[in-house]
């Protein structure tokens, strides 16, 4: 049986101004500059040239003057979101070269045919973040054909993979841990220790993984001292070569321009927001005059012109106001973060970094959590102890044995100290690390230990064991 009826739904629609503001809030200062310049090019109503009229007249008109009805005055609207830059030409800060970009750059130095370069470039794009190639060669060949239109064979793919495996960081392009370690060992100067290390990884990898030292000695016919010397070479190798190169910024080498500059004077914290190269914009007077002349006219062409200009004026109004709201939102959020983490920002001591989540700052500012998330995304602050992304100051917290909140960074620091101080012949298991952390006043679960250990790059106990 079919049912018919009406269903009422209440939906909240965002205004053009709200949409524009959300988009601008997400942008770091460099991207904001590009956005403003693009808007200047696409909207003739916006202007970044100085108004020849007096500053006094310009100040008399606010953005609220833009109304749907009524006479529209001469437009002297201007965005003045920033004060004068303390430094006209602001220094930028380099981010490490991306992993894929680094490999592609090295590929460019090799004397390859265009076809070989295409195959090798595709292989680089198929590597995992840790530098391994975990895809089957046959699958790569099929993908090269169907996705890139490149015809190749197993011999050429293997040959190009060998080229990539000669790149820095050493070990990149390996298909498993054994191959990764062998690539690194074979790149070292051939000493007796290195030769034994190569034999251990090549011929006794399973026993090596399980720490069966006596089996290795017996099979290779080496002494305990020779085994120790060889292991000393192996443990210094990097099992995740891709992790050496920072790839956290979309595989691109970027320049960071801090959105905030911290200022500290006698324990009082303040900040500035450098304008960098973002132009100041205002509404162009001649288009407002055109609208005034066309208003009320019966001529079709003039009405169409007036409609066009009115649309551009509305768009300009939303953009200018969105810039102001972005400035206010970023400023209030940064002030709340400084207040919340005041003790930390005095000297950069991580032990003073309080547990802080997005909700904490949302409650202090009155903004939504989603708004705070957009503000801290891709934004940086320059302090007297370094350059930091705003995300750095947010972390979950736990309680210690005295009921006081501690940050995850403090817990990780304590965990690292436990591992550093352990007996390397009998390294602590995760269960034993729980006990050690408890002795230090931190009540954590074993799964939490495993999670933090992994984030710190600390291997399992059996991998940390020394002979």
Number-wise, the strands total 10
Please, how many domains?
4
Strand order across the biggest sheet?
A: 5-4-7-8
What amount of the residues lies in strands? 5-15%
Whole-angstrom Rg: 31 Å
Main sheet record: 4 strands, mixed
| Low-confidence segments | 1-11, 54-96, 245-253
Instruction: Please give the alpha-carbon distance between the first and last residues.
Output: 78 Å
The helicity comes to 40-55%
Shape: flat
Overall pLDDT: 77
Structural overview:
With 467 residues, the protein is α+β, with helices and mostly antiparallel strands. It folds into 4 domains: 224 residues, no CATH class; 89 residues, no CATH class; 57 residues; 68 residues, Arc Repressor Mutant, subunit A (Orthogonal Bundle). Helices cover 49% and strands 7% of the residues. It is built from 21 helices and 10 strands. The protein has a 4-stranded mixed β-sheet. Helix 1 crosses helix 14. The longest helix is centred in the C-terminal third of the chain and has 41 residues. The radius of gyration is 31 Å and the shape is flat. The N terminus is likely disordered.
Summarize the SSE layout with pairings.
Blueprint (H helix, E strand, L loop, with lengths): L15 H11 L2 H14 L3 E2 L7 H6 L32 E2 L4 H10 L5 H12 L11 H10 L7 H11 L12 H10 L5 H12 L1 H5 L3 H8 L3 H11 L20 E2 L3 E6 L2 E5 L9 E2 L1 H10 L5 H41 L1 H6 L10 H8 L3 H8 L3 E4 L2 E4 L7 E3 L5 E3 H13 L9 H10 L6 H10 L5 H4 L3
Parallel strand pairs: 4-7
Antiparallel strand pairs: 1-6, 2-3, 4-5, 7-8, 9-10
Provide a short characterization of the protein structure:
The chain has helices spanning 16-26, 29-42, 55-60, 99-108, 114-125, 137-146, 154-164, 177-186, 192-203, 205-209, 213-220, 224-234, 285-294, 300-340, 342-347, 358-365, 369-376, 408-420, 430-439, 446-455, 461-464; strands at 46-47, 93-94, 255-256, 260-265, 268-272, 282-283, 380-383, 386-389, 397-399, 405-407. The protein has 467 residues and is of the alpha+beta class.
């Amino acid at each position: 049986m079919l049912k018919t009826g009406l269903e009422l739904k209440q939906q909240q629609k965002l205004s053009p101004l709200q949409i524009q503001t959300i988009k601008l809030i997400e942008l770091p200062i460099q991207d904001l500059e590009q956005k403003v310049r693009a808007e200047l090019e696409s909207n003739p109503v916006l202007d970044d040239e100085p108004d020849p009229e007096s500053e006094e007249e310009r100040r008399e008109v606010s953005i609220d003057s833009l109304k749907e009805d009524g006479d529209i005055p001469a437009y002297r609207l201007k965005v003045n979101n920033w004060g004068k830059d303390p430094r006209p030409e602001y220094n930028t800060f380099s981010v490490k070269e991306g992993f894929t970009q680094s490999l592609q750059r090295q590929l460019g130095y090799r004397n390859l045919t265009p076809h070989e370069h295409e195959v090798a470039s595709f292989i680089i794009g198929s590597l995992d973040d840790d530098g391994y190639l975990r895809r089957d060669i046959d699958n790569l060949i099929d993908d090269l054909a169907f996705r890139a239109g490149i015809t190749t064979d197993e011999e050429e793919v293997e040959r190009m993979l060998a080229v990539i495996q000669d790149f820095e960081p050493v070990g990149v392009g390996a298909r498993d841990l054994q191959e990764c370690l062998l690539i690194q060992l074979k790149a070292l100067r051939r000493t007796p220790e290195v030769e034994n290390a190569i034999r251990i990884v090549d011929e006794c990898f399973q026993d090596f993984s399980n720490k069966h030292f006596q089996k290795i000695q017996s099979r290779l016919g080496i002494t305990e001292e020779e085994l120790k010397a060889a292991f000393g070479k192996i443990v210094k190798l990097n099992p995740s070569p891709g992790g050496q190169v920072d790839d956290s910024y979309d595989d691109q080498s970027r320049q960071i321009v801090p959105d905030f500059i911290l200022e500290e004077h006698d324990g009082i914290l303040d900040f500035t927001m450098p304008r960098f190269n973002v132009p100041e914009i205002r509404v162009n007077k001649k288009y407002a005059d055109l609208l005034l002349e066309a208003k009320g006219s019966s001529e079709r062409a003039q009405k169409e012109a007036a409609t066009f200009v009115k649309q551009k004026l509305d768009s300009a109004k939303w953009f200018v106001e969105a810039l102001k709201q972005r400035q206010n939102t970023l400023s209030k959020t940064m002030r709340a973060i400084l207040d919340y983490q005041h003790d930390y920002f005095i000297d950069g001591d991580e032990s003073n970094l309080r547990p802080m989540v997005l909700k904490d700052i949302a409650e202090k500012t009155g903004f939504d959590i989603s708004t705070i998330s957009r503000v801290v995304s891709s934004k940086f602050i320059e302090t007297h102890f370094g350059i930091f992304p705003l995300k750095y100051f947010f972390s979950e917290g736990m309680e210690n044995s005295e009921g006081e909140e501690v940050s995850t960074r403090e817990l990780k620091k304590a965990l690292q100290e436990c591992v550093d101080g352990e007996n390397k012949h009998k390294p602590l298991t995760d269960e034993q690390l729980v006990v050690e952390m408890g002795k230090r006043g931190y009540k954590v679960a074993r799964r939490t230990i495993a999670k933090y250990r992994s984030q710190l790059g600390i291997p399992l106990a059996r991998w940390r064991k020394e002979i």
